[in-house]
């Protein structure tokens, strides 16, 4: 028995040695076919490039591509998944004779005769999304790469989405380290090893001197595209153009280089980063650039490639990069909130109109400071002062009452450029607490002052003090009376009391980005209706209700205890700085996921140094608005209210 087993083992070993001595045979790529590949192409085949930003269902753009292919035969190439995209093309986009999909798993398959025959007869070739490093490894310098170039030279259309778009420029981000570099990390070392810029893949005349990026605005990729351009220029020794396409957009390029944008969401488009950067970058050092010019092509624009000229641009924006931080220049913006927890049932048309008027007045007051060239701190102070004076909000004159029938006011302010901050809590006679918080920051060695001490400091500094009766409004007084009754009923029935939104919402806040690209944040509140024992919420606590640094500013409104526990303001900005998350994603994750999961609710505003804005909230409404360089205020109250994007 032993000898038989030994013979079997020796035979198996011999087969293994024989196999090792034989040439390797590539595994053929998976192949999926829909339609009749032998049918006549019904239309005329014309040149064109389709650059899709990675989103699904952009059927209008796809139909443009199919028409360029004469509604004939499409070949899809990919290096992951299966034939799903071919099924979408054939069954949902429709209007084509056939679609073949090849899924590669190695480089050897790029020499497969069947693949090459399909590519040669294809009317249109489409590069699907996936891991772009695989495309570089599998296709660069192979017959497939040569076939793609030959296809375009023959006047046939080539398209791609996500990674399939990223591969089409003369220079490309290869993600060769197995990751996907994010904007903060790319800007921290643009010439470093993580920024893997490749070339010699495709030779497309309309994308010569161009490097592309996808999922652009959705994934906060402007910073990394600027880094891509910088490294590509260091390799090329000449100017390179960056082209970033939003996830909900596609750029359809005609044979003569003129291109239009197809979008499936409002505001989606393509961003052109003009290269030829004046300052050379140094490896292992963060990027510094005095000027980066960008142009956004929208659905009404005409983009010309490879020059990058845009007719009728949707916007033109100038940026700088300071020590690795992307900053919007000459593009001031002010963002405000007047509190989350707005309940439609408690609002009359007159209430809504008054709130909108007050929000617009606050925006105009802050904008006047920005227009005059004043720093962001001045705009924040001016806007919050107006909101504190307006009785519609739970701050200043409209503050809610404590259990003892008093108004206790809290406020804070922070300068993103210097990291300095000031805050006050539990004051009763300061007309505009934001001005006292500002004085604490500017005229003392402290960050926070409370109660009588804060008011003594206010008197020393000439900050306006008023009789406590100034803050009384009948609406807030009645809210206290109702809260006291509900508290008594709950105690009598031995049941827990549910706090209505109006008990702890209504805080006001403002964020500003000035013309020099510097940020500031401020928050002011009357606290919580029926609060006791000198309770202080998140609004005056730096890092909980207010935060500003060199790339992110935040002001919160909601159930303060939960914002304190989450360090909500700092957490949002930390995710932007350290994790490279987009401002919108970071704010939404903290406000609409983390805080509700812990048992709280509310809202916030957030503003990035790059000019991005976010307005997350999880209540029926939140007073909110913004104003840009044009001086036109935009305000909203309820979730369904439109608020134009910047």
Automatic annotation (TrEMBL):
<keyword id="KW-0378">Hydrolase</keyword>
<dbReference type="InterPro" id="IPR000246">
    <property type="entry name" value="Peptidase_T2"/>
</dbReference>
<dbReference type="InterPro" id="IPR029062">
    <property type="entry name" value="Class_I_gatase-like"/>
</dbReference>
<comment type="similarity">
    <text>Belongs to the peptidase S51 family.</text>
</comment>
<keyword id="KW-0720">Serine protease</keyword>
<feature type="signal peptide">
    <location>
        <begin position="1"/>
        <end position="26"/>
    </location>
</feature>
<dbReference type="InterPro" id="IPR029055">
    <property type="entry name" value="Ntn_hydrolases_N"/>
</dbReference>
<keyword id="KW-0645">Protease</keyword>
<dbReference type="Pfam" id="PF01112">
    <property type="entry name" value="Asparaginase_2"/>
</dbReference>
<dbReference type="InterPro" id="IPR005320">
    <property type="entry name" value="Peptidase_S51"/>
</dbReference>
<protein>
    <submittedName>
        <fullName>Isoaspartyl peptidase/L-asparaginase</fullName>
    </submittedName>
</protein>
<dbReference type="Pfam" id="PF03575">
    <property type="entry name" value="Peptidase_S51"/>
</dbReference>
<keyword id="KW-0732">Signal</keyword>
């Amino acid at each position: 028995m032993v000898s038989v087993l030994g013979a079997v083992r020796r035979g198996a070993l011999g087969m293994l040695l024989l196999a090792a001595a034989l040439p390797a045979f590539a595994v053929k790529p998976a192949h999926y076919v829909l339609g009749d590949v032998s049918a006549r192409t019904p239309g005329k085949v014309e040149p064109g490039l389709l650059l899709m930003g990675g989103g699904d269902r952009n059927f209008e753009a796809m139909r443009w591509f199919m028409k360029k292919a004469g509604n004939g035969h499409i070949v899809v190439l990919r290096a992951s998944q299966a034939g799903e995209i071919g099924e979408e093309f054939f069954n949902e986009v429709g209007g084509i004779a056939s679609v073949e999909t090849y899924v590669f798993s190695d480089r050897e398959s790029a020499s497969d005769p069947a693949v090459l025959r399909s590519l040669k007869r294809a009317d249109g070739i489409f590069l699907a999304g996936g891991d772009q490093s695989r495309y570089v490894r599998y296709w660069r310098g192979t017959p497939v790469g040569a076939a793609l170039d030959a296809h375009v030279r023959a006047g046939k259309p080539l398209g791609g989405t996500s990674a399939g778009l990223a591969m089409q420029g003369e220079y490309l981000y290869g993600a060769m380290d197995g990751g996907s570099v994010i904007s903060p990390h790319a800007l921290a070392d643009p010439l470093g090893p993580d920024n893997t810029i490749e070339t010699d893949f495709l030779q497309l005349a309309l994308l010569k001197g161009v490097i592309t990026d996808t999922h652009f605005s959705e994934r906060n990729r402007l910073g990394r595209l600027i880094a891509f351009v910088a490294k590509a220029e260091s390799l090329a020794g000449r100017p390179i153009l960056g082209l970033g396409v939003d996830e909900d957009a596609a750029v359809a390029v005609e044979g003569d280089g003129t291109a239009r944008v197809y979008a499936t969401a409002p505001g989606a488009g393509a961003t052109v980063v003009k290269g030829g950067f004046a300052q050379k970058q140094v490896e292992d050092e963060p990027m510094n650039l005095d000027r980066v010019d960008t142009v956004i092509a929208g659905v009404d624009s005409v983009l010309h490639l490879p020059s990058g000229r845009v007719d009728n641009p949707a916007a033109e924006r100038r940026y700088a990069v300071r020590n690795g931080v992307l900053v919007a220049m000459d593009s001031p913006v002010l963002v405000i909130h007047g509190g989350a927890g707005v309940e439609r049932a408690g609002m009359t048309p007159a209430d809504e109109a008054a709130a909108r008027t007050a929000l617009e007045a606050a925006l105009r007051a802050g904008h006047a400071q920005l227009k005059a060239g004043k720093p962001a701190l001045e705009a924040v102070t001016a806007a919050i002062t107006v909101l504190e004076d307006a009785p519609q909000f739970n701050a200043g004159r409209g503050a809610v009452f404590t259990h003892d029938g008093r108004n206790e006011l809290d406020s804070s302010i922070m300068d993103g450029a210097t990291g300095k901050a000031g805050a006050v809590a539990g004051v009763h006679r300061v007309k505009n607490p934001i001005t006292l918080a500002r004085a604490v920051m500017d005229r003392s060695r402290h960050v926070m002052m409370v109660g009588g001490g804060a008011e003594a400091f206010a008197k020393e500094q000439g900050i306006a003090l008023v009789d406590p009766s100034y803050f009384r409004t009948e609406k807030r007084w009645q809210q206290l009376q109702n809260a006291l009754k509900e508290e008594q009923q709950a105690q009598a029935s031995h049941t827990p009391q549910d706090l209505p939104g109006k008990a702890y919402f209504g805080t006001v806040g403002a964020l500003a980005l000035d013309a020099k690209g510097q940020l500031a944040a401020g928050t002011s509140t009357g606290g919580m209706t029926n609060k006791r024992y000198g309770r202080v919420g998140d609004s005056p606590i730096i890092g909980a209700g207010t935060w500003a640094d060199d790339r992110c500013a935040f002001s919160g409104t909601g159930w303060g205890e939960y914002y304190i526990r989450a360090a909500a303001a700092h957490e949002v900005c930390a995710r932007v700085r350290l994790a490279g998350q987009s401002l919108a994603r970071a704010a939404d994750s903290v406000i609409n996921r983390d805080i509700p999961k812990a048992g709280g609710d509310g809202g916030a505003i957030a503003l990035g140094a790059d000019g991005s804005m976010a307005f997350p909230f999880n209540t029926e409404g939140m007073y909110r608005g913004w104003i840009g360089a044009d001086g036109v205020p935009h305000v909203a109250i309820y979730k369904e209210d439109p608020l134009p994007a910047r």
